[in-house]
Write a structure and sequence with these properties.
single chain; 549 residues; alpha+beta; nine-stranded antiparallel beta sheet; 17% strand
């Protein structure tokens, strides 16, 4: 008995490094010192209790009993199926389907040919079909978009537009980080840009830029584009970052029908104009012309814009359908894809507000553990008791490197971090022995920014080191900033983090999974705050270990 369950949509939602320290923590194996027969008998008792709870519609109790069943007997296949039923009854559809899939996988391994198992297997297969179809829609949409990006990226490379090709391949890697064709294509595009970049002379008079540029313009007016090319190229050797010179070269090559060279020069023009901190009206006019010329010479640019627009429209439509069917995780994945293509998409932001993040977090824990081949080792441990900070090191690093004890206080059972100024880094990190592999979750609220016009950030810290000779403190850290912190004040936020000797990954509010450096052998867990006054309400650690399955 086999079933092909499509998991591709998970690639789009490795957005979440999630910890849920709820009832699922009970999957820590129980009764490990019991004889196998006694464990099986105890599991059977909990399973029967769960069936009774399902019959009387006490779905939360049924869920707990089935979880307990599995904690005593991991290979008790029917418990996974009935746990799926309980989650569906609790309107946590996706968690229910996840356990249906676990049941199918386990049943295939056990190869139980009994009549009861065959009946349950068929029943679960029928239930899972609807979710499979929904799941595959997201995978198909993402795969089609990815294929289109690769196609357009290759076509742009062939057309000589290495800038646009690089952008397309970068988008493809946003959609699927380990996509080999996109990775190779991006390297080719970057190498082509580097090869085409003019080299500046070491000892040159910048005034010669104008001399050669004006000479090139004069030749263009005389309709001598081939001769103008030489003058413009001479100008670039004195100042390579000259968008007006690149635009002139683009026009020259376009006139003499050398499209690839025209494209690369218009591309450099666009690059340098876009990088200017403050553009004049003339700059904006030239940028618009360069973009228009590129679109004319490389039709893949227009196709790229259309592909993004179509993807966004389809992903938003699919997300709405998922939300209507209580597939919150799938909806979250679709909206994550939209945000990768259009970070400021307002409809995506509106739909995200309808998603229960706690549901996302509970579901994601199972996938997190599977992804890294981990299982729970001990019960979750609250690292903050709400009364004191005895187990925590506190410090404040001021501008210039001076270190003090930090601005912290306890108010109403919460840790309050209050930087004295916008440049002060407030650091709090756990002082006890770290587990070999730890999952950490911190819940906090932003109270206010210390200084509105200064950068504010929060970082998860994996290691801290200080050089004695300089006093400089360095970190392995992952950092986030809130683009509109005022809208996030008083809202609960969560940083989830997995830390080991070889692993450092974290997410903010169930967002994109971010990887950090692991070059420091000793690990800690902590937070660094700058320019935010905030309160920490909970810090929880879950010790895990590598699965032996």
């Amino acid at each position: 008995m086999n079933i092909n369950v499509n998991k591709k949509y998970l690639d789009a939602i490795t957005l979440v490094l999630i910890l849920s320290f709820s009832l699922n923590s009970a999957f820590k194996l129980q009764g490990q010192d019991m004889p196998d027969e006694q464990k099986t008998a105890t599991a059977r008792e909990f399973y029967n209790a769960g069936l009774d709870a399902l019959k009387t519609k006490k779905y939360d109790k049924a869920r707990d009993f089935f979880i307990k069943t599995i904690s005593y007997h991991e290979a008790f296949a029917p418990a996974y199926a009935k746990l799926g039923d309980a989650y569906l009854a609790l309107k946590e559809n996706e968690l229910g389907y996840e356990y249906y899939k676990k049941f199918i996988a386990l049943a295939d391994k056990l190869n139980d040919s009994s009549e009861d198992m065959a009946k349950l297997y068929k029943e679960i297969l029928d239930k899972i079909k609807k979710f499979q179809a929904a799941e595959e829609k997201a995978a198909l949409l993402n795969n089609d978009f990815l294929d289109k990006l690769l196609e357009l990226g290759k076509a742009s490379l062939d057309a000589g537009d290495c800038f646009t090709a690089g952008e397309m391949f970068s988008f493809a890697l946003e959609m699927q980080a380990d996509q080999p064709e996109a990775s190779d294509g991006l390297k080719q595009a970057q190498a082509a840009v580097a090869q085409a970049e003019p080299q500046e002379r070491l000892h040159a008079d910048p005034e010669l830029v104008k001399v050669y540029y004006d000479a090139g313009l004069d030749l263009m007016k005389q309709n001598k584009p081939a001769e103008a090319v030489e003058k413009f190229n001479n100008a670039l050797t004195y100042r390579p970052a000259s968008p007006e010179v690149f635009f002139g070269l683009g026009e020259c090559y376009e006139k003499i029908k050398e499209a690839k060279k025209a494209i690369i020069n218009y591309g450099f023009c666009r690059k340098y104009l876009q990088s200017r901190a403050a553009r004049s009206k003339e700059d904006d006019a030239m940028l618009a012309k360069a973009v228009k010329c590129l679109e004319k010479l490389n039709p893949n640019i227009t196709a790229f814009a259309k592909a993004k627009k179509d993807y966004i429209a389809k992903a938003l439509s699919l997300a709405r359908d998922y939300l209507n069917n209580r597939y919150q995780y799938l909806a979250y994945a679709c909206l994550g894809g939209v945000r990768k293509v259009d970070k400021l998409n307002k409809e995506a932001d509106t739909l995200l507000l309808k998603i229960d993040r706690e549901v996302i977090r509970r579901q994601s824990k199972e996938q997190l553990m599977e992804k890294f081949g981990l299982r729970l080792k001990n019960a979750p441990m609250n690292l903050f008791n709400g009364k004191d900070l005895d187990d925590w090191n506190l410090r404040s690093i001021e501008k210039g490197g001076a270190t003090t004890g930090g601005n912290f206080s306890l108010e109403n059972g919460k840790i309050v971090l209050n930087p004295p100024n916008a440049d002060s880094n407030q650091i709090i990190y756990w002082s006890k022995t770290m587990p070999a592999i730890g999952l950490f979750s911190v819940e906090f609220n932003i109270i206010k920014a210390v200084q509105d016009d200064n950068q504010a950030l929060i970082s998860a810290i994996r290691s801290i080191s200080q050089k004695e000779e300089t006093g400089v403190t360095s970190f392995n850290a992952l950092t986030w900033t809130f683009t509109e912190p005022q809208t996030d004040w008083k809202k609960k936020h969560t940083i989830d983090c997995i830390i080991s000797k070889d692993l450092f990954k974290a997410s903010l509010d169930g967002g994109d999974l971010t990887s950090g450096k692991t070059d420091h052998p000793e690990t800690v867990f902590g937070l660094l705050i700058r320019n935010y006054k905030l309160e920490i309400t909970s810090i929880v650690m879950q010790e895990v270990e590598e699965s032996t399955k």
